[in-house]
Queue: 2 jobs
Job 1
Amino acid sequence: MRKSTFILPVIVVLLVVALSSVFIVDEREKALVLQFGQIKRVKEDPGLSFKIPLIQEVVRYDDRILSLDTQTTEVTPSDDRRLVVDAFARYRIADVVRFRQAVGTGGLMVAEDRLEGILNAQVRAVLGSDGVTSNTILSSDRSALMARITASTQVLAAPLGLEVVDVRLKQTQLPEQNLAATFDRMRAEREREATDERARGEEAAQRVRAQADRTVVELVSAARKEAEITRGEADAQRNNVFAEAFGKDPEFFEFYRSLNAYVKALKGNNSSMVLSPDSEFFNYLKSPAGAAQPSPAPATE
C-alpha cells in the first residue's frame, strides 16, 4: 500500500515532464526553442518535436502572409498640392531568428510599429520625389510608384526578418482644408472649357450661316438671271409678234393701240384730262365707222 502511494506521484511527475518536453508545430507557424532567452533551435517544418522541460521554452510565430494598415499620412508632390495617403502592406516573417533578435519579446506589435514607420517614410520619399506630381499619383502611373515603394520597403524591412510582399495605396485624397479651393478651381476650369466650347460652336454656326447666306444669294442671283433672260426672250418674242401684226395690217394695229390707250387713260377715277377736241387721241371715238380720221391738212395761203 505504501509502495503504490509512492509510485503514483512519481508516475504523474514523469508524465508531466514527458508531456512538457513535447510540442507540436502547426503548418501555419514557425517555432524557436529558447533556453534562458538564448535561441537554441529553429523549428520551421510542421510536426512533433522535443525540448528540455522546465529549461527550454517554445516561442511560436505566424508563418502566413500578414496585413498592416498604416495611419494616413500627408505627402507633398513636386507640384506642391498636398495629398492625404492611406497605404497598406502585405508581409510575412521570413527569418524568425533575425526577427527575434530585432524585436525581442515585443513580437508582432513592435515589428508592425517599426514597419509602419518604414512604410510611411518610403511613401513620403517616393511620392515627394522630383517628377512625381499629384496627377501622376492619381493616374494609372501610380502602379509604378507602388512598385518603387515596395522595393525600398523590402530592403529596409529585411533587417527585421520581414519580407514585404506588396504595398498598395488604399486611398489618396486632398486634405479637408483644400477641398473647397480645389472644387472652386475645378469649377472655374470647367466653366472656362464650357465657354471655349460655346465660342467654338458659335464660330462654327457663323460659318454655317455665312455659307448658307452665300448659297441663298447665289441661288437667288442665278434665278433672277434666268428670269431676266426668260423675260427678255419673251419681250423680244412679243415685239416680234407686234411687228409682224403691224406689218400685216397697220390700220388694225393702230386701232388696237388706241383701245389700249383708252383702257389705261379712262379708268373711271376722279382724274381729269385736258385735251383738244381735234386731238388724234379721239380719232376712233369721233368716227361713226370706227376708222381713224385723217388729220386736217394745214392751211395754205
Job 2
Amino acid sequence: MNRLKPWTLALVGCAVATLFASRGSADPLPEKYQKHVDKGLEWLKKTQNKDGTWSAGGQNPVAMTALAGLAMLCEGSTVTQGKYRENIRRATDWLMKRSMKGGNRDGLVGNPDHPGESGRYMYGHGFALLFLASAYGEEDNKRRREEMKDILTRAVKYCGSAQSTQGGWFYTSKTEGHDSDEGSVTVTQMQGLRACRDAGIPVPKEIMKKGFDYLRKSTTQDGGVVYSLGRGGFGAPAGGGRPALTAAAIACFFSAGEYKDEHVKKWFKFCERHNIHQGGQVGGGIRQGFDEYTQFYFAPSMYFIGEDGWLKMFPGTAKKDALTWTKYRNHFFDGLCRVQNQDGSWPSQGGWSVGPIYTTAVYTTIMQMDNNCLPVFQR
C-alpha cells in the first residue's frame, strides 16, 4: 500500500524530479526475498509483549517498540487496516502513553528514569517520533488524531530544546548532556523531525538548518562524518570519519530533499571506498561494525538513487562500476537470507547489535524499501 498524501507529493515530488527524473525503478521485491520478510514480520508479531512493547532484554523499550512497529508499517499495514494493524495499534498506544508532560522534559517520548533508557533516552525519542509520525497520517479517530498531533507537536518542541549549541544532539538533552553532541543520535532526531514535517506537524526551519550544518561541519576532508564535533569546534577533526555515520548523513539529507548538496557526493564516495555497498558480513563482506545501523541508513539512500542516480551524480563512472539499488539489493538480500534463523529472526551480529528484535526490525524494514510506503523512505 502506498500512502503518499497530497502534501507529501508537494514536498517531495518536485525536488525529486529535478535530479533523478529518469533514474529508473527497480522491480518489485522478488518472491524469494518476500518469504523471508514474511517470516521476519511474523516473528516480530509473536514476540510483541502484551502491553504492546518490544525490548532488548528489557533494554531500550521505546526505541525497540518504535523500530519493530516501523517494520510493520513498511509492510503496508496501518493503525486501521492490514494484517499487522493490531500490533501497530498496541505499539502506538504504548508510545503515546510515554509522552511526558510538564517541566523541562515536556514532550519527551520516553522514561529517563527507566534503567533500560537512562543515559540514552534521546535515541528512543527520535525513533518514537519517526514511528508515531508515520502512523499519524492513517489515524481516523478524531480524538486520537488530535492527541497524536499534540504529542508530536510537543515532541518537536522538546527536540529543539534538547539540541546542542553546535546543532547536534546527544544521548541525553542539552542540559543533562552538558551541551555535548553525537552523530548517530543527531541523525535519529533529524529523521524523526523530517517524518513529523512530512505528516504536517510544524517543525521550525532553524532546528533542521542547525542539524544540517552540524553534519556538514562534522565531515572530514576525505568525506567521512566523525563521531562528535564537540563543544566549541568549528570543523571536524582530522581523520576519524565513520562509515556508519556517513551513511546516516546521506539518508538524512535525502529524506529532507537535500539532493544536490556537495556533501552528499563526498559521503557517497567515502561509503564506496569503505565498501558499505557490499553489505558487511551479512552481504558476504568483512564485518565493519554496526552493520545493522549502517545498512538501515545506507539502504534507503541506495533505494532512492535507483538504477541511474549514481551516474547522474558521477557522470564519468563506467556503467558497470556504478552503484545501483538492484545490485545492492540482490547482493545484500542474498546475504540476509543466508543468515536468517529458522524462526524468522536474525541473529544479533557477533555482539555488535543489541539483540534479535533490533536486528530483525532493521532488516525487515530494509527488505521492504520497494513497498514505498513511508514518506521518509520514499523516492
